[in-house]
Amino acid sequence: MTQTKPANKSSTPSLKQSTGHPAGKPGRKTRRRRSRELALQGLYQWRVAGGTVEAIEAQLRETNEFPRTDEEYLSVLLRGVLANVSELEKEIQPHLDRPLKELSPVEVAILLLSTHELASHLEMPYRAVINEAVELAKTYGGTDGHKYVNGVLDKLAAKLRTVEINAKM
Measuring CA to CA, which residue among 118, 159, 111, 162 is closest to residue 137? Predict the structure, then answer.
């Protein structure tokens, strides 16, 4: 049975964040990293509780972190992923050792977000996309989730960024 409730901050699932800084990045986070973190929270919320992109984005705008993000990039990421979920899942699935639905919602959200960046944001170096995903997985994911995310994204990058990878050789 579907229950309709007004969206508010208290009903938003939250990701637990470690108290330390991401590995190798003590101090301040970049606006882009904060954008990815909020996009991850929005995708996690969508994966666990559903909702429209507009409602999720409105909730993210109410967070304390929002003013310190690259607001445009956050919106582009969130909307880009949610508009292309089926295509992104089709890109990811062949590189997994189990069905996507068996992964944790955090890992799925990170993989969707990063696959979108690899496929649609060619201005972002593939190594930077993978590094950001690994840092998100270390901060928000399970114990060894970052290793799994790294392995999947390495395979995806080889497919989606062949020209870029070959140019570096």
Answer: 111
